[in-house]
UniProtKB/TrEMBL annotation, chain A:
Domain of life: Bacteria
Keywords: Transferase
UniProt protein name: CoA transferase subunit B
PANTHER family: KETOACID-COENZYME A TRANSFERASE (PTHR13707), SUCCINYL-COA:3-KETOACID COENZYME A TRANSFERASE SUBUNIT B-RELATED (PTHR13707:SF57)
GO function terms (MF aspect): transferase activity
Family (UniProt): Belongs to the 3-oxoacid CoA-transferase subunit B family.
Source lineage: Bacteria, Pseudomonadati, Pseudomonadota, Gammaproteobacteria, Oceanospirillales
TrEMBL record, chain B:
Alphabetical keyword list: Transferase
Source lineage: Bacteria, Pseudomonadati, Pseudomonadota, Gammaproteobacteria, Oceanospirillales
Similarity remark: Belongs to the 3-oxoacid CoA-transferase subunit A family.
GO molecular-function term, one example from the UniProt record: transferase activity
Family annotation (InterPro entries): 3-oxoacid_CoA-transf_A, CoA_trans_fam_I, CoA_transf_BS, NagB/RpiA_transferase-like
Superkingdom of this protein's organism: Bacteria
Keyword Transferase attached: yes
Pfam entry (one): CoA_trans
Species this protein is from: Alcanivorax quisquiliarum
Name of protein: CoA transferase subunit A
Amino acid sequence: MALTREQMARRVALELQDGFYVNLGIGIPTLVANYIPDGMQVMLQSENGLLGMGRFPTEDELDADMINAGKQTVTAVPGASIFSSAESFAMIRGGHIDLTVLGAFEVDVQGNIASWMVPGKLIKGMGGSMDLVAGAENIIVTMTHCSKDGQSKLLPECTLPLTGAGCIRRVLTDLAYLEIIDGAFHLKERAPGVTVEEIAEKTAGKLVIPDHVPEMSFA
Amino acid sequence: MAGFDKRVASLEEALDGLEDGMTVIAGGFGLCGIPENLIQAIRDRGTRDLTVVSNNCGVDGFGLGVLLEDRQIRKIIASYVGENAMFERQMLDGELEVELTPQGTLAEKMRAGGAGIPAFYTATGYGTPIAEGKETRVIDGRDYVLEHAIRGDFAIVKGWKADWYGNVIYRHTAQNFNPLAATAGRITVVEVEEIVAPGELPPSQIHTPGIYVDRLLCGTFEKRIEQRTLSA
């Protein structure tokens, strides 16, 4: 069975470590915040200038001056800090963020990522995504393995305009967890009930399959 | 006006000298921390052919979106746009030029503009469409793109509190691009919720020192929320 969005978020949450500063993109990455293990301290960075993003506010706490990068109203946790956009991207570009999780349209065997623009469709902009992929050492891309029409999103070479070149090392899809090493996807884990054959069939880029591919666990 | 007193009496005075074809840098992220009153005043002046530098371009009928209604913006430099139907139509019709810029690069362009740094190298965007035609350079084995600073004829800024001298404090995430915009205007105009006497704001808590501010006024704010999300 392909992973649900919640299962994908739970799998990514296993990569969190106590004391990590983490930037979560919009969509599945945002759900990772729901699975931070009890007793672990993680600070969420929102690139509009908030380090220590908390839950959504109650009606009483609602404040138009407190939003996240998705323009949603949020709260700040105790010990949070707030700063300018230049400071925020100094943290990002300067490699100070321990883990970045973001979505994509395509990833290829060279670690290129395309996530912001589909030619012919309305282009809304890259926001902070180009800075995030250029700045972070430790990035996990979360996306479905195939597009809605069944095309593989793990490619020999991205077909869409890039967000960043050579910057992605780890990908979690609804079928598998893979690492990008020396021009190939290396299959590290498969979703429960998903066969290696199915993953191989749905991966267009070069895929290296070890003798044993463990089933993913979520705890 | 005397000495360091930056207060002006009206929005008209605040925008005196703003002419057709000028570049205006605006603070704000989405609809958070936007200079609502100055945007409306630019609309009322009818100034046209503006180049607007802002992370976003408002929504239909609010924020910078109101300047699209009378086609006052010729070009926008932004990281994320298209939250309004009018924007989309004008862009597709070719009436509105859009220069998309990564958010961190946009912030740094403003910061550099205000800090006297003409250009800077960044890894952001290398190998992507936004690097096309730009100088690149390898530094310590990594590829970088040369990005140029931005200055504006005007900067319009939203603060929380300021003293007469133009020392400004921002509130929560309404800070965003505002302190950067404030440094990068040849004429920087700040609107705030409250103006106090010099000495009432703690010097070590000032976000934008008054040296960057030319004109200051107090306004009332709707503070519209773009995505109202509540805890269950």
